[in-house]
């Protein structure tokens, strides 16, 4: 039945696409007016501590609404007003209606805490060949041991994958295209990662085309992250309504990135930063981003199954506590990893203490 529904949806999308016009990139005025109306964004990349990856977050059997509510309450207490959240196409394939209902439930929870959401569709990072059903337990001391790409290498081997992804993107965007609880759509996280390089260009191009055909009220973006990926960077910067980027380096490097992107004249949002042992910390980056009027979305809120308190390339297989947390701000009970750091976050975010 579900396969029939997906086939019907695909045919409907193809018919719709034949009749739809692709809207242009937002003008500089529209982009800057939108950003001025929203005000400064401060927040985190969010996944509940109970989920090892995007699938465990969104599948019906493991969707943790209570945990999401509790941890977004923590986020609101820190003064955060935005979170960036990864989706995945496989729960949609399994049950499109249920998946969208869970998205709506999540959005209602986030909105109750006065937190807006940046949703991410595709991702080239970490483990290949995602699968529905029970997800692997986290490997002790290994950063993001269970995180999965979307769609991963399957797109290069399946003739029908691109049609499924088009149906998925257009269905989700079409359902939430006027939803004010959503800040923006991040169509593709770190395209070209995992050695894909320019082979990710086609899906990136298609994702922008599908998004512009649906024409949501929210802006579309894909964040630049690797200067060496010249062709992908050019495409991302030309197609994004609002410019987003990643920088996990110190304040000098980060300031250089901001200065290089200012020339495009569009609002800037950093959608990933804060890796303590790499010199990207709240005390040297967050105040700078506020002063520069650049949106600030750091990686990680609560220490959980993603194991992102461990560094990317510095595993601790014993699972013992790292001397310095790489990402994340809070323990599962909401207690700070670093109380002084939390005081700083609250101060910059305007929370009375």
Can you describe this structure?
Helix 7 runs parallel beside helix 8 (201-214) and helix 11 (282-291) runs parallel beside helix 12. The protein has an 8-stranded parallel beta sheet with strand order 5-4-3-2-1-8-7-6. The longest helix has 18 residues, at 2-19. The model is unreliable at 12-19 (pLDDT under 50). The termini are far apart. It has one domain: TIM Barrel (Alpha-Beta Barrel). 41% of the residues lie in helices and 12% in strands. The protein is built from 12 helices and 8 strands. The radius of gyration is 19 Å and the shape is globular. The chain is an alpha/beta fold and 353 residues long.
Distinctive features:
alpha/beta; eight-stranded parallel sheet; 12 helices; globular; GH; signal
Rg from Cα: 19 Å
Give the CA-based shape.
globular
* H/E topology pattern: HHEHHEHHEHEHEHEHEHEH
Which CATH class applies here?
A: Alpha Beta
Distance between the termini: 55 Å
Strand adjacency order, main sheet: 5-4-3-2-1-8-7-6
Number of strand elements: 8
Q: Provide mean pLDDT, rounded.
A: 95
Number of helices: 12
- Unreliable residue runs: 12-19
The CATH architecture term is Alpha-Beta Barrel
CATH topology: TIM Barrel
Number of domains: 1
Helix amount? 40-55%
Task: Give the full name of the CATH homologous superfamily.
Answer: Glycosidases
Structural class: alpha/beta
Beta fraction: 5-15%
User: How is the main sheet built?
Assistant: 8 strands, parallel
């Amino acid at each position: 039945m579900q396969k029939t529904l997906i086939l019907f949806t695909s045919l409907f999308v193809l018919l719709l696409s034949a009749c739809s016009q692709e809207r242009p990139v937002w003008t500089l005025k529209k982009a800057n007016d939108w950003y001025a109306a929203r005000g400064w964004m401060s927040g985190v990349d969010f996944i509940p501590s109970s989920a090892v990856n995007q699938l465990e977050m969104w599948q019906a059997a493991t969707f943790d609404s209570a945990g999401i509510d509790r941890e977004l309450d923590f986020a609101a207490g820190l003064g955060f007003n935005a979170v960036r959240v990864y989706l995945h196409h496989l729960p949609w394939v399994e049950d499109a209606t249920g998946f969208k209902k869970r998205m709506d439930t999540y959005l209602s929870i986030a909105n109750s805490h006065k937190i807006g959401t940046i949703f991410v569709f595709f991702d080239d990072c970490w483990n290949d060949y995602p699968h529905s059903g029970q997800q692997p337990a986290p490997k002790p001391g290994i950063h993001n041991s269970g995180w999965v790409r979307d769609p991963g290498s399957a797109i290069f081997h399946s003739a029908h994958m691109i049609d499924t992804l088009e149906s998925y993107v257009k269905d989700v965007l079409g359902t939430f295209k006027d939803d004010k609880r959503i800040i923006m759509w991040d169509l593709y996280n770190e395209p070209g990662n995992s050695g894909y390089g320019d082979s990710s260009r086609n899906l990136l191009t298609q994702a922008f085309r599908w998004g512009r055909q649906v024409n949501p009220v929210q802006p579309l973006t894909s964040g630049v992250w690797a200067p060496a990926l010249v062709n992908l960077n050019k495409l991302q910067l030309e197609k994004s309504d609002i410019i987003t980027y990643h920088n996990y380096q110190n304040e000098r490097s980060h300031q250089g990135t901001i200065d290089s992107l200012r020339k495009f004249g569009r609002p800037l949002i950093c959608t990933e930063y804060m890796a303590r042992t790499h010199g990207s910390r709240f005390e040297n980056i967050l105040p700078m981003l506020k002063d520069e009027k650049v949106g600030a979305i750091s990686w990680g809120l609560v220490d959980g199954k993603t194991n992102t308190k461990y560094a990317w390339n510095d595993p601790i297989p014993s699972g013992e506590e790292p001397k310095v947390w790489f990402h994340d701000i809070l323990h599962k009970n909401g207690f700070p990893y670093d109380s002084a750091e939390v005081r700083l976050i609250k101060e910059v975010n305007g929370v009375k203490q």
